[in-house]
Write a structure and sequence with these properties.
- This protein folds into two domains: about 1-35 and about 45-80 and about 205-230 and about 255-344, Elongation Factor Tu (Ef-tu), domain 3 (Beta Barrel); about 80-115 and about 125-195, Ribosomal Protein L3, Chain: B, domain 2, CATH 3.30.1430.
- About 10% of the residues lie in helices and about 30% in strands.
- It has about 350 residues and is mostly beta strands.
- It has helices at about 110, 125-130, 140, 180-190, 220-225, 280-285, and strands spanning about 40-55, 70-75, 80-90, 95-105, 150-155, 170-175, 195, 205-210, 220, 260, 265-275, 300-305, 315-320, 335-340.
- A hairpin with a 2-residue loop joins strand 3 and strand 4.
């Protein structure tokens, strides 16, 4: 007879399971592969829902090679990002230091609502300091170009161009590839302009996603860690059997306890872009009644293989894959069918 063995319930890989500090999560690390030109390395989108795609499997070592397979996929709507500023960084005392930024002259109306509405006169001398802090331009940073280390874009999303009703944009910072000179020129061209998702990613490329999961509030150890429930005659059925020894009288942090479940930052690696769609492709990937709790697609979107953390309408950060797979384990031919039927 085989020996009964039950491994530890739950996972401590993501401890502590506390709530995310903010709903919009952005990447700090990016691929160091050499690039011939400057271009953004990340993008923002909004999760719309899931569909399934039927396509021919072209992975030669797969048991289903040459056959049609079903691939669950997530639709992320990606309205254009507005570049409202450029930030310049230098390395001082082994630390990345911001040396200043340049702002665009014209800003989007919904983004303007987030800015402070005027400043009070304040104490004596404050007005003089405000005059000294005049609007900077690229010409102010030309002399210090050799001392700079990075040039990054300040962008905001445009959720008002989607159909789920939100208007307040999300603000983030995007890294650029290329040499410093290429970054400088690219930022000069894009200041006050839009960036589309097709400029950042290509079809059949690999990306990483980062988002905040669905919040489930405070839950007990059974749902939070999957511990075994006690027998029906026990005083307490949904509690941990023992919190620890009598001596020393302490409770180890590894003991399953009640607490926060969900609404935590999660990063998932190597999601393949099946298709980058345009507004003309939106009707083919949208259910007749729209995605549940989201609506219809009205702009650019990305079709990713697999699931993505978080509920619909939540902002998702996309990044060029940091550790790409050694082989294309999801080599697909052209999609022959896309199911847009929403299950009950």
């Amino acid at each position: 007879m085989a020996r009964l063995h039950k491994p530890r319930s739950g996972s401590l890989a993501f401890y502590p399971k506390k709530r995310a500090s903010r709903q919009l999560q952005s990447f700090r690390t990016f691929s160091l592969e050499a690039q011939k030109e400057a271009r953004p390395l990340a993008f923002l989108g909004y999760k719309a829902g899931m569909v399934h795609v039927i396509a021919k499997d072209e992975h030669k070592k797969s048991p289903s090679f040459g056959q049609e397979i079903v691939v669950p996929s997530t639709v992320i709507e990606c309205p254009p990002l507005n570049v409202f500023g450029v930030r310049f960084y230098a390395i001082e005392n082994n630390a990345l230091t911001c040396k200043g930024e340049v702002r665009a002259e014209k800003l989007e109306k919904h983004f303007m609502k987030n800015l402070p509405k005027g400043q009070s006169k304040g104490k004596k001398g404050e007005e003089k300091k405000r005059e000294e802090r005049k609007r900077k331009t690229f010409a102010d940073f030309e002399p210090m170009k050799n001392a700079l280390a990075h040039v990054r874009l300040l962008v905001h999303s445009n959720p008002s161009q989607t159909s789920f009703g939100r208007k307040r944009p999300d603000v983030t910072e995007i890294h650029l590839t290329g040499t410093l000179e290429q970054q400088f020129e690219y930022a000069r061209q894009k200041l006050g302009q839009e960036i589309r998702v097709s400029e950042v990613f290509k079809d059949h490329s690999w990306v990483d996603v980062k988002s905040v999961t669905i919040g489930k509030g405070t839950q007990g150890p059974v749902k939070r860690f999957g511990v075994k429930t006690a027998r029906p005659k026990s005083d307490r059925q949904r509690h941990v059997g023992s919190l620890g020894p009598i001596n020393p009288s302490t409770v180890a942090w590894t003991v399953a306890r009640a607490g926060q479940l969900g609404y935590q930052t999660r990063t998932e690696y190597n999601k393949k872009i099946i298709k980058i769609g345009s507004p003309s492709d939106a009707p083919l990937f949208t259910p007749k009644a729209g995605f549940t709790n989201y609506g219809t697609l009205s702009g650019d979107f990305v079709l990713l293989s697999g699931s993505v953390p978080g509920p619909v309408k939540r902002a998702v950060s996309l990044r060029e894959a940091l550790r790409k797979p050694h082989h294309d384990r999801l080599a697909l031919g052209e999609a022959t069918f896309v199911s847009t039927q929403v299950g009950k």
